[in-house]
Amino acid sequence: xxxxxxxxxxxxxxxxxxxxxxxxxxxxxxxxxxxxxxxxxxxxxxxxxxxxxxxxxxxxxxxxxxxxxxxxxxxxxxxxxxxxxxxxxxxxxxxxxxxxxxxxxxxxxxxxxxxxxxxxxxxxxxxxxxxxxxxxxxxxxxxxxxxxxxxxxxxxxxxxxxxxxxxxxxxxxxxxxxxxxxxxxxxxxxxxxxxxxxxxxxxxxxxxxxxxxxxxxxxxxxxxxxxxxxxxxxxxxxxxxxxxxxxxxxxxxxxxxxxxxxxxxxxxxxxxxxxxxxxxxxxxxxxxxxxxxxxxxxxxxxxxxxxxxxxxxxxxxxxxxxxxxxxxxxxxxxxxxxxxxxxxxxxxxxxxxxxxxxxxxxxxxxxxxxxxxxxxxxxxxxxxxxxxxxxxxxxxxxxxxxxxxxxxxxxxxxxxxxxxxxxxxxxxxxxxxxxxxxxxxxxxxxxxxxxxxxxxxxxxxxxxxxxxxxxxxxxxxxx
Length: 479
Description:
Largest sheet: 9 strands, mixed
Oligomer: single chain
Structural class: alpha/beta
Distance between the termini: 33 Å
Radius of gyration: 25 Å
Number of domains: 3
Shape: globular
Low-confidence stretches: none
Mean pLDDT: 91
Helix content: 25-40%
């Protein structure tokens, strides 16, 4: 599968944006670590390489041997300075900073179909171009883009903007015209790739244990495993005590509808006990994942012959948290992650493609730590009850207002005690725009009604706030 664009990730936000835009045009893009070496690139043999950087970033290195591979390279944002240094040039001060400027484009295949126009320049440095490298775009007397046509190396100092058709054109010019990438990443191709992850192990007669949470990722993975392994599989839902109101019952009903055998194991008491005195998000998450891995290993222990563990890891999980396989090293199970190359939107599309209901396919994201991620500080039964009740009320009001599908996520967070020692709670509702979580403008009467209902049934909660803070996707600790 070398008919692809390789993205060297110097910016999580922009790398995901670039990969998503290319995949939307059926061009396969894979994100890899920024330290990826020329030898590793050679083994992957991509059609092209994109260095994804921040518009005003610093640092980072590029293995100069990559340029000797003969593979086209496009460097965006601050990585353009890294590319220029490898080509023998340099960059200095930034004459353009945080202002709009008219960008004029020269004759370059990278800018075919892109007309001059204003762009916001967070930062554009002075570039010293070496022999063989020419300017291809400029603004306010400053070189904005350059190329080495012989080595097919292209540098652009700005990054993609949201709702940026010119940015998409530049990406497609690079991937299509310059790199000659084929448009093959269709829903059917994605499905075949996910199925291929399971096929060999299933063909050997292994038995599959699927760790599920009720979310669309693990449910889809279990559905794929059911089709691949047939009767030789079981889905296991571990009740951590941190699930939302009615979550276990809804999961049972969904799996019965999909004809997937499901085993529910209650370890809620043990999980809550282990969470005692744990206050940090990472240490709480480690407790839950530790219990989960113990349970999956225990469930597989009685199974004879080869065993496989199927996880619902998606591409975003992989980029932000890494694969789940290390948790099961030495367990004797083959770990399979059929969705590890798919973004959440692609997972949802595949779920619909395989006949899952719209309600199941559009199920809102929920962290692995469950409601424990919605509690700042120690998790106790009393605090769990308060946040679970608030969550059920907030979700009910959102659904009644018909806003469920318009919002990316919505939830309450228990933040701690006020000066009188009573709990404070924050309501959070966001939409997704590019790589940002943007606070939603909920109707005032909805918020007022939600607050009144929560206060009436939760005596431990004294004050309730609505969070208006925008954040980057993946950087919200309770997301």
